[in-house]
Each structure stands twice: as C-alpha cells, then as structure tokens.
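Hi support team,

I've been running sequence recovery on a batch of backbones for a student project. Most finish fine, but this one hangs at about 90% for roughly twenty minutes before it completes. I'm not sure whether the input is malformed or the queue is just slow. I've pasted the structure tokens below so you can try to reproduce it. Let me know if you need the job ID as well.

Thanks,
M.K.
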C-alpha cells in the first residue's frame, strides 16, 4: 500500500487480488474504514492534540471493477481535524473515478486549554491565579481558545468569562499603556536627529499600538507608536 499526504488529501493506493465474479473485486468495509481512519490520524499529526475517532459513518462492502484501486479522502477546507464533518471518499480504479461517497465522521480532540478558575469580568487583568490548564475536547469548545497560560496572563478581559469556561483569545486584549487624554512625551528621531515634544493622546493603546497624538505646541495631530506608559514615538 502506498500513502501520500498532499494538500490535506490522503491518497492511498493498493492493488487488490481478491475477486468476486468475473472482472470484479470486493473491498471490505473494514478496509474502507481503515482508509478513513488513516486519513484522520495523519490530519492531526503534530498538532499537540490527542484524537480519537468516535464515528465513521460508513458501512457495507464495495464491489468494483477489477484493477488498481486508489482512494482519495477530502475534507472541507476549513476543517481543523476534529468535531463533526462530512468527508468525501473518492474511489478510483485504474485512475478512473468509480465512487464519490460522503462519509460523516466525528473526532474527539483532547488538549490542554486555559480555563477560568472563577468569573472574570470585563476590564480584569488576568493573573496566574485566575486560570488553570485543563484537558478539554476542542470539538466542544467555541472559537479559538488559549492553549498556553502565557496566551492569557497579563491580558485584559474584553467580555465576561464564566468560571470553568475555556478562555478564548478573542475575549482578551493587551492592557493599554496609554489612555485617551493622557499627557505623553512625543519622540521624533532618526540616526542624526532627536526631537521631543509634549503631547496628548487621542486614543488608548498597548505597547506597539499606533495612536493619534496631539502636539500641544503646534496643535497638530500625528500617528505615533506607543513605547511605554508615558512615551510615544513618531517614525519617519
């Protein structure tokens, strides 16, 4: 048997010698299920999750014309490899498509995720004591959840997270260092020149964010990058 994983498609080719009547071969149900199972295993290799197949919605032997039989398993483009989806099982004999079968599969994927120890309210800054890593089935979580403590610690909560719920990345944001209306020092510099001026932030931003800042001397507004809690830099 030859296995090739290409662009999300697992292609398996084998020559069948067993016959069933003149000019026909029979592929057993166990072989078809093994083909799909192999695809699911390879789909989730090196993703740091422990997967187990709950369901392969296929049954029955398959009768095909005699020849070299190959399989192509195709998943939806955005399917991550766990949960429920319909795969397409394409069966070819001597490179000619004989069957195109939808197969429903369900895959459990256990992985460490960040979970809230207690309710986290909007505006809370997450500390080490606010979260814990727990094994959860990614198929039963919604959105992109944090997989590492460092993905959450030090971030600010954007929307309430209930106790014992996974912490989603889109529920968090970096803590703003500069607040709207705050007085800041504007730095303008290059290799040959450095100028500083007093300014007022017109928006909030975390380190590295770009905010609008008003130069108090000229009253002009410029875009500046947040350096720290009191400094912004104008790049040119």
């Amino acid at each position: 048997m030859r296995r090739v994983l290409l662009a999300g498609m697992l292609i398996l080719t084998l020559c069948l010698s067993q016959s069933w009547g003149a000019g026909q071969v029979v592929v057993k149900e166990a072989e078809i299920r093994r083909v799909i199972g192999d695809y699911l295993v390879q789909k989730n290799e090196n993703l740091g999750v422990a997967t187990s197949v709950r369901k392969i919605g296929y049954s029955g032997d398959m009768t095909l014309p005699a020849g070299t039989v190959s399989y192509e398993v195709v998943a939806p483009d955005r399917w991550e490899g766990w949960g429920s989806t319909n795969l397409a099982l394409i069966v070819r004999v001597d490179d000619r498509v004989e069957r195109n079968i939808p197969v429903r599969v369900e895959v459990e994927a256990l992985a460490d995720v960040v979970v809230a120890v207690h309710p986290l309210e909007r505006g809370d800054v997450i500390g080490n004591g606010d979260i814990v890593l727990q094994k959860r089935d990614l198929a039963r979580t919604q959105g992109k959840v944090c997989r590492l403590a460092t993905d959450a610690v030090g971030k600010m909560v954007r929307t309430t997270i209930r106790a014992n719920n996974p912490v989603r990345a889109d529920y968090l944001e970096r803590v703003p260092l500069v607040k709207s209306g705050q007085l800041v020092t504007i730095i303008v510099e290059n290799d040959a020149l450095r100028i500083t001026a007093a300014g007022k932030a017109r928006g909030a931003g975390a380190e590295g964010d770009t905010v609008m800042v008003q130069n108090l001397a000229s009253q002009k507004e410029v875009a500046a990058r947040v350096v720290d809690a009191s400094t912004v830099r104008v790049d040119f």
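--
Follow-up from support: It reproduced on our side and the slowdown came from queue contention, not your input. The helical segments are 29-43. No action needed from you.
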